[in-house]
Design a protein that fits this description.
Layout (H helix, E strand, L loop, with lengths): L1 H14 L3 E5 L1 H30 L9 H21 L7 E5 L13 E7 L7 H12 L8 E7 L4 H24 L6 H6 L7 H28 L13 E4 L5 H7 L6 E6 L10 H16 L4 E6 L3 E2 L4 H9 L8 E5 L3 E2 L13 H12 L11 E4 H4 L1 H5 L5 H8 L3 H8 L16 H10 L23 H11 L3 E4 L7 E3 L5 H19 L5 H4 L7 H12 L4 H16 L11 H23 L5 H29 L16 H8 L9 H28 L6 H13 L1 H9 L8 H23 L1
Helix pairs in contact: 2-3, 2-22, 3-20, 3-21, 4-5, 5-7, 5-8, 9-15, 9-16, 14-15, 18-20, 18-23, 21-23, 21-25, 21-26, 23-25, 25-26, 25-28
This protein binds uridine-5'-diphosphate-glucose and manganese (II) ion.
Protein name: Cellulose synthase A catalytic subunit 1 [UDP-forming]-like
Membrane topology: Multi-pass membrane protein
InterPro entries: Cellulose_synth, Nucleotide-diphossugar_trans
C-alpha cells in the first residue's frame, strides 16, 4: 500500500510542472504601444532634420556641418533605442517549485567555480566566505565540488582555504542542523541579533567564536605574507591541491556527514603566454574539474558573490531537469544583486535596467546573457558540437581539447550525466599530476580552447561573448529572479571603480560590436533568433552613446552662445515632435522604474550616470577597443577593488560623490558643466539683448537639464571642501579647455 502511494505521488510529481513562466501582458502592451508611437515621432524628427538639406530657403545661419552632426547624433541615439526595444518585446517572469524535484539520489552533481585574482583587492576572508557559502548549499554534499581559481597564486589564499575547510567542518553541520537560510558566515554573524536562548544560542556562540578565530588566523597570516616579494602573480607554476581536514579533531566534528570536495587551483602563468584573464582561469577550472569530479552542471561565482540562499541549486535544477526544455538549455541565470548599495545608490550601481528589465525581456526570447556570476551552466554546452553529437574518436577530440588522455576519457563519459565521481579517484597523485598538466600554459597550444570550446577569449567581457556564441549555436537560457536574492555581491561604490569597470565593459562590448562577430551580421547566419540578436547588438553597441552624449553636451551650447538655432521654434508642429520624444522616453523609463519596484529617485541617478559614463567610459572604452584592433594596445582586465575603505564609505553613505579619480575621467565631466554654464549665461543674455526666444527654448532647456542632472559635479566644484571634492586644478584645466574650444569655435563660425 505504502509503495503504491509513493508510486502514485511520484507519477503525479513528474507530471506537475516544476516551473512556471508568466508573460507580463500589461508591460508588453504598454511597451509595444510606446514602440509604435515613439517610432512615428522619430520618423517626423528624421523628416525635420533631413528636409534641411533639400529646402530651397535653407537657413544659412546654420552651418550644414553642424546640422549634420546633430542629425548624426540623433540617428545614433534612435538606432540604439530601436535595438533596445528587442529586449522589451516579450517580457516574462518565472517561478519554480523545488519541492517537486526528485529525491536527492537522482540529483546531478555540481561543480562550483569561484575565481579570485588579486589578494590585495579581494580580501581573503571575503573570498572564503563565498567559498563557505557555496560549500553550504542545500544539496547533497557529496555532489558539490568547489574549485577556487587563484590567479594571484597567493599562499595567503591557499592558507585561507585550509582554514576555511577546517571552519566548514563546524559551520556546515550547524547550517544543516538549524536549516539556516543565510549560509555565508560573514552575513549570518553580521545580521542584527535577535533575542535567542537555549541550545541554538549557545551553539551559535560556539560557532561564532570559531569564525572569529578563523578570521583572526587568516588575517594574521595575510598581514605577514601579503607583500612577500617572492610571490609573482604574473609568473608561477601550477599549484593544485585537494583541501582536507587539518586535524583529527576537526574530522570528528562532521561525524558521518560528507563534506563537499574543495580544490585549490592556481594555473601556471608566464609573461610570454597570454593568460586571457578570467576566461582563461575558467577554462583551466573546466579541465581540472573535468578529470576530478566532472559534474554535468557548473555554478559560476565571482569571489565576492556569496550564496545568500542555499536553495539556488535546487531552484536551477527545476529547469535543468525538465525533460522538455533541458536538451537545449545551456544555463539558468540569477541576477547579480549587491549587498553594499546604499538607499540612494548615488553611483547607480545596481544595474536596474539590466537585471530588472532586459534580462526578463531576453528571457521571453531565447534567454538572458550569461552574467559572469550567479549562473548554473551545463558543462556539455561549453564542449561544442563534437561532444554534443557524441563523437568518441579520441583523435578528433584531442585536436579540439588537447592531449590529455584522462580528460578525453572523461569527455567520452559526458553523455552519462548522473554518474557520480569515481570513488576517491581525485585523490590519486596521478590525477593531480594530470590536473597540473591541464593547468599549464602550453596545454592550450594548437587546441580550440577559448575559440570553439570553453569560455571565449575574444573579448574581456567573456560572459557576454560566451553566451552570445552559445545562443548562436541554438542553445537557450532562462532567467530566475526570485524575491529573496539568491546571491549577493559587492557593487562599485566610488566613482573611480565605477568608471574603470565601465571602461572595461565598454571596451569589451564594442570590441564585439565592431568585429566580424557583430550580432547584427554574425547573428544572421546562425541559429540565434532575430530579436535575441538585436538585444545582443544593443549591448555591444551602446558604448556608441558617447557620440550623442558629447554632441548634445557641446554643440547646442556653442550654438546657443552664437544665437544659432538648432531646434524648431516653440509650439511649431516640429517642436511638439521633440517634446513628445522627450516625454515619451522619459515616461517609459519612469514606468519601467516603477514596474520593476524601484523608487523615482532612480530616474535621476540613471539619467546622471548615462551622461557621466557616456562622456567618459563609453568613449574611452571605444577608443581602447579601436586601439586594440589596430594593434596599439593589449587587452587588460583590472579587477574591481573589493576592499572597504572607511573614508570612501563615509562619503558614500553621506550621498556625496568621491571625485578622487584620474583627470582623464574628471576633465570631460567638469568641462561639460563649465561649458553649459557659459552657454546658459551667454545665450540667455544674448537673447535678452537681441530679443528672440522662440528659437532657443530647446537649447536653453537642454543646458538647464544638463546642469541640473550634473548637480553633484557642481557641488563638488564649488560647494565642497572635503577630500572627495573636485580638485581645483581639474576645474582650472577644464576651464582652460573650454576657453580653447570657444576660441576655436569662434574662428570656425566666423569663416
Ligand atoms: O585575470 C583575472 C581577472 C579577474 N578574475 C576574476 O573575475 C571576477 C570578476 O572580476 P571583477 O574585478 O569583480 O570584475 P567586475 O567588473 O565586477 O565583474 C563583472 O564583469 C566581468 C566581465 O568584465 C564578469 O566576468 C564578472 O562576472 C562580472 O561580475 C573576480 O572574481 C576576479 O577575481 C580572474 O579570475 N582573473
Ligand atoms: Mn565584481
Amino acid at each position: 500500500m505504502v509503495q503504491f502511494l509513493r508510486k502514485g505521488r511520484m507519477e503525479a510529481s513528474s507530471s506537475i510542472p516544476r516551473h512556471l513562466c508568466h508573460l507580463n501582458l500589461l508591460f508588453m502592451l504598454i511597451s509595444r504601444a510606446h514602440m509604435l508611437l515613439h517610432s512615428i515621432a522619430l520618423v517626423f524628427l528624421i523628416h525635420y532634420r533631413a528636409s534641411f538639406f533639400f529646402s530651397e530657403t535653407q537657413n544659412h545661419q546654420i552651418p550644414t556641418s553642424i546640422w549634420s552632426l546633430v542629425f548624426a547624433a540623433e540617428l545614433v541615439l534612435a538606432f540604439i533605442w530601436a535595438l533596445n526595444q528587442a529586449a522589451r518585446w516579450k517580457t516574462v517572469t518565472r517561478k519554480v517549485f523545488p519541492e517537486r524535484l526528485p529525491e536527492d539520489e537522482k540529483l546531478p552533481a555540481i561543480d562550483v567555480f569561484v575565481c579570485t585574482a588579486d589578494p590585495t583587492k579581494e580580501p581573503t576572508v571575503d573570498v572564503m566566505n563565498t567559498v563557505l557559502s557555496a560549500m553550504a548549499l542545500d544539496y547533497p554534499p557529496e555532489k558539490i565540488h568547489v574549485y577556487l581559481s587563484d590567479d594571484g597564486s597567493s599562499p595567503v589564499t591557499l592558507f585561507g582555504m585550509r582554514e576555511a575547510y577546517a571552519f566548514a567542518m563546524w559551520w556546515l553541520p550547524f547550517c544543516r542542523k538549524y536549516g539556516l537560510k543565510t549560509r555565508c558566515p560573514k552575513a549570518y554573524f553580521g545580521a542584527p541579533e535577535e533575542e535567542e536562548n537555549g541550545e541554538y544560542a549557545s551553539e551559535k556562540q560556539k560557532i561564532r567564536d570559531k569564525y572569529e578565530l578563523f578570521k583572526e588566523r587568516v588575517n594574521k597570516f595575510r598581514d605577514q605574507n601579503l607583500g612577500d616579494p617572492s610571490i609573482n602573480g604574473r609568473s608561477h607554476s601550477p599549484v593544485i591541491g585537494v583541501i582536507r581536514a587539518n586535524s583529527q579533531d576537526d574530522e570528528g566534528q562532521t561525524g558521518q556527514l560528507a563534506m563537499p570536495l574543495l580544490v585549490y587551483v592556481s594555473r601556471e602563468k608566464r609573461p610570454s603566454y597570454p593568460h586571457h584573464f578570467k576566461a582563461g582561469a575558467l577554462n583551466v577550472l573546466l579541465r581540472v574539474s573535468g578529470v576530478m569530479s566532472n559534474s554535468p552542471y557548473i555554478l559560476g561565482l565571482d569571489c565576492d558573490m556569496y550564496s545568500n540562499d542555499p536553495s539556488s541549486a535546487r531552484q536551477a535544477m527545476c529547469f535543468h531537469l525538465d525533460p522538455k526544455i533541458s536538451p537545449s538549455l545551456a544555463f539558468v541565470q540569477f541576477p547579480q544583486i549587491f549587498r553594499n548599495i546604499s538607499e540612494n545608490d548615488i553611483y547607480d550601481s545596481k544595474l536596474r535596467s539590466v537585471f530588472w528589465v532586459c534580462w526578463h525581456g531576453m528571457d521571453g526570447l531565447q534567454g538572458p546573457l550569461l552574467s559572469g556570476t550567479c549562473y548554473y551552466l551545463k558543462r556539455e554546452a561549453l564542449y561544442g558540437k563534437l561532444v554534443q553529437d557524441g563523437t568518441y574518436d579520441p583523435m578528433d577530440l584531442k585536436a579540439v581539447f588537447g592531449g590529455s588522455n584522462e580528460f578525453i576519457k572523461r569527455l567520452q563519459q559526458m553523455k552519462r550525466p548522473y554518474e557520480n565521481r569515481g570513488t576517491d579517484c581525485w585523490e590519486t597523485s596521478m590525477v593531480l599530476r594530470e590536473a597540473e598538466d591541464l593547468a599549464s600554459c602550453r596545454y592550450e597550444d594548437s587546441t580550440k580552447w577559448g575559440k570553439e570550446v570553453g569560455f571565449m577569449y575574444f573579448s574581456v567581457v567573456e560572459d557576454y561573448f560566451t553566451s552570445f556564441t552559445l545562443h548562436c549555436k541554438g542553445w537557450a537560457s532562462v532567467y530566475l529572479n526570485p524575491p529573496r536574492p539568491q546571491f549577493l555581491g559587492t557593487g562599485t561604490t566610488n566613482l573611480n571603480d565605477l568608471l574603470v569597470q565601465g571602461t572595461r565593459w565598454s571596451s569589451g562590448l564594442i570590441e564585439v560590436g565592431l568585429s566580424r562577430f557583430c550580432p547584427l551580421i554574425y547573428g544572421l547566419s546562425t541559429k540565434i533568433s532575430i530579436l535575441e540578436a538585436l538585444a545582443y547588438a544593443e549591448l555591444s553597441l551602446f558604448p556608441l552613446y558617447f557620440i550623442p552624449a558629447w554632441c548634445f553636451g557641446v554643440i547646442p551650447q556653442l550654438c546657443l552662445l552664437h544665437g544659432i538655432p538648432l531646434y524648431p521654434k516653440v509650439l511649431s508642429p516640429y517642436f511638439l515632435v521633440f517634446l513628445f520624444i522627450f516625454l515619451s522616453s522619459t515616461s517609459k523609463q519612469v514606468y519601467e522604474i516603477i514596474w520593476s519596484g524601484h523608487s523615482l529617485h532612480t530616474w535621476v541617478n540613471e539619467r546622471r550616470h548615462w551622461m557621466i559614463k557616456s562622456v567618459t567610459c563609453h568613449m574611452y572604452g571605444s577608443m581602447d577597443a579601436i586601439m586594440k584592433k589596430i594593434g596599439l594596445r593589449e587587452a587588460s582586465f583590472l579587477p574591481t577593488n573589493k576592499v572597504d575603505d572607511d573614508e570612501q564609505t563615509k562619503l558614500y553613505e553621506m550621498g556625496l560623490f568621491d571625485f578622487q579619480a584620474p583627470a582623464m575621467f574628471l576633465i570631460p565631466l567638469v568641462g561639460i558643466v563649465i561649458l553649459n554654464m557659459f552657454a546658459l549665461v551667454g545665450g540667455v543674455t544674448r537673447a535678452l539683448l537681441v530679443g528672440y526666444w522662440e528659437e532657443i527654448v530647446v537649447q536653453t532647456f537642454l543646458s538647464i537639464f544638463i546642469l541640473s542632472v550634473s548637480y553633484p559635479i557642481i557641488e563638488g566644484m564649488f560647494l565642497r571642501k572635503d577630500k572627495g571634492s573636485v580638485p581645483p586644478r581639474i576645474t582650472v584645466f577644464s576651464a582652460i579647455g573650454v576657453v580653447a574650444v570657444l576660441a576655436f569655435w569662434n574662428i570656425f563660425v566666423s569663416v
